[in-house]
Amino acid sequence: MTARWLKPYMPRSLYARAALILVLPMVVVLLVVSIAFVREHLKDVTQQMTHAASREVRLILDTMAESETQNEGLAQVRPLLKGLAMQARFLGPNESPTIEARRWYDFIAPQVESFLRDELPALSAVSLPNSQMATLYLQTDLGVLELRFDRRRLSTVAPHQLIVTMVFFAVLMTSVSFLYMRNQLRPITRLAEAAQAFGRGRVVPFSPGGAVEVRAAGSAFLDMRARIERQIEQRTLILSGVSHDLRTPLTRLRLGLSLLPEEDAAPLLQDVAEMQSLVDAFLQFSQGVSEGDPVDVDPAALVRQIVDDAQRAGQNAALGTITGEGTVKLRPVAIRRAVENLIGNAVRYGTRAEVGITLTGRSLRIRVEDDGPGIPPDQRTEAVRPFSRLDPARNQNQGSGVGLGLAVVADVARAHGGVLRLGKSESMGGLCADIIIGR
Fold first, then answer.
1. What is the pLDDT of residues 87-118, one digit of tens each?
2. Domains of the chain (ranges, CATH numbers)
3. Is the pTM of this model over 0.70?
4. DSSP, residue by residue, 374-421
């Protein structure tokens, strides 16, 4: 329960959390040492010194107790004042005690005043403006006596020096630790950046570094990246090779069927056309997102061009709302293929398609909506798998799809570090397909 309410206030980055782990114990130690030093050690020392000074003050008061005038009293205690290094005088009839402001960091002064009031009932006021001089105002039968002496007789000199020294060295050592910690965390940051870039379809140079554990994680990432790249390359080569090799027999079949009577060859030519469509889909799926590296692309301009091309091809496609401006690192050929697949599916299973864009500082969303039957929520996960054909939801007799359209779109989205989300169009009632890519 405690972790839940504390979690929103905790830093999210590794560097900030490591800094908190480093600084928090240091601050706690400083507070504990400071409080213990002030309350225990300094308190005892101050009480002893104040008690000794109070005995001297009481001696002066007792000596002048039998005097009848102020001058006589001062004359009687003059030898004591000289020996005790004190100065004394009586305040005038219209004169009041002068209480100077204390220093804000003088945390010993309140203890000194408290001890003096306990020891000296005749004390009426105390002035402790600095560490050099202390002034006591005592109520006597002859008037208010002002007694001045060295402040160092009441408490230690500059008791805050220990705390200041601890704070200085704590800040110094913490700064050094921060520099060392930043150097240790830099390899982790580079590993995170390389992994994030690879997840978005970019390969950035990376070499393992840092501690042994970080080096091991970096080497494991490089091996994983190499295996994934080999698998992608092998998949592309296999599918491309198979699809390419199938074209030759299909061409021979089409030539052979052209020699037969038209009424006999028609059904067979339809089968060959479906096989040709399947081969083309294989080629498109095998190409994936292999067309070059990501470049800065204006997604609004790219989508406008795709919609214009679809309209010239006779597809009922329209450009919807465009929100935001800027560029995003994309593979334009792959994005074009993905959006064209979505538009093709929309006009095949519905009557029209609408394409919109939302560009923010964190993400890019390309939305394609249609007025077709849509896809039920429980079948949307299955719909993006290769060779998936959802006959009840989207009538396959309306086209020659082979179940790779949404799979290609999902593959393109994942290669850009994004995701394909399927839902229901609120405005058109059919399918709503969102390609969401982080910036």
1. 999 998 888 888 888 877 777 788 888 899 99
2. 10-161 (3.30.450.300), 207-287 (1.10.287.130), 290-438 (3.30.565.10)
3. no
4. ---GGGHHHHTSTT---TTTS-GGGS---S-HHHHHHHHHHHTT-EEE
